[in-house]
Amino acid sequence: MSYAIQHLKETAEIVAKINPEDCEKCVQELVSLRARHGRLFILGVGGSAANASHAVNDFRKIAGIECYAPTDNVSELTARTNDEGWASVFVEWLRGSRLTDKDALLILSVGGGNLEKNVSPNLVTALQYATQIGSRVIGIVGKDGGHTAKVADACVIVPTVNPNNVTPHAEAFQAVVWHLFVSHPDLKINQTKWESVAARP
């Protein structure tokens, strides 16, 4: 079996195993967030940071949610990393943004953060702060979900079907799942371009 066949087969297995009820729960958290005029802060590291930037666009433009990703501001991110340390970059950004209990975090992560293993400690400290403030937490994560899954109010875990491909599948499915969110009839308020073109007589 070629690697391409293997990878696509694993992808199909993941689709079949993702819990749709978890997706619906996340969507309802986002619907409630918008109704109370809260802001959505999307946090991710590495490939997940790039996904966060894309997702911010979709939540703002398609779902009408005020939304931000700290990693979009490279000057502040690198200044805080240099001056204060990597572990606190997100929590200090959230403090500066005056996070409240009306707001929510959306965590995009392969492992969800783990302080004991020193993996994505910046996500964990941000989650600890959000929990303390009373902000809601939503996650799209891989593996066992790590700290995110433990504290989230709603979370989609991308199942592991091949331990050697956890990262590519987790990061790829972040996009699949958040696109499910923004295209959900309960959340979508603005038509996407090609669908609107196709609908014209």
What would your notes on this structure say?
With 201 residues, this protein is an alpha/beta fold. It has one domain (3-186): Rossmann fold, CATH 3.40.50.10490. Helix content is 54%, strand content 11%. It has a five-stranded parallel beta sheet, with helices on both faces. Helix 7 (146-151) links the parallel strand 4 and strand 5 (154-157). The termini are far apart. The mean pLDDT is 95.
- Structural class estimated from helices and strands: alpha/beta
In helices, the fraction of residues equals 40-55%
Task: State the helix count.
Answer: 9
CATH superfamily: Glucose-6-phosphate isomerase like protein, domain 1
Tell me the overall shape.
globular
Number of domains: 1
In round numbers, the mean pLDDT is 95
Task: Give start-end ranges of low-pLDDT stretches.
Answer: none
CATH topology-level name: Rossmann fold
CATH hierarchy, class: Alpha Beta
In short:
This protein has nine helices and five strands, in the order ααβαβααβαβαβαα. With 201 residues, it is of the alpha/beta class. It has a single domain (3-186), classed as 3-Layer(aba) Sandwich (Rossmann fold), CATH 3.40.50.
Layout of helices and strands, plus pairs?
Layout: H1 3-17, H2 20-35, E1 40-43, H3 47-61, E2 67-68, H4 74-84, H5 89-96, E3 104-109, H6 121-133, E4 136-141, H7 146-151, E5 154-157, H8 166-183, H9 193-199
Parallel strand pairs: 1-2, 1-3, 3-4, 4-5
Helix pairs in contact: 2-8, 3-8, 4-5, 5-6
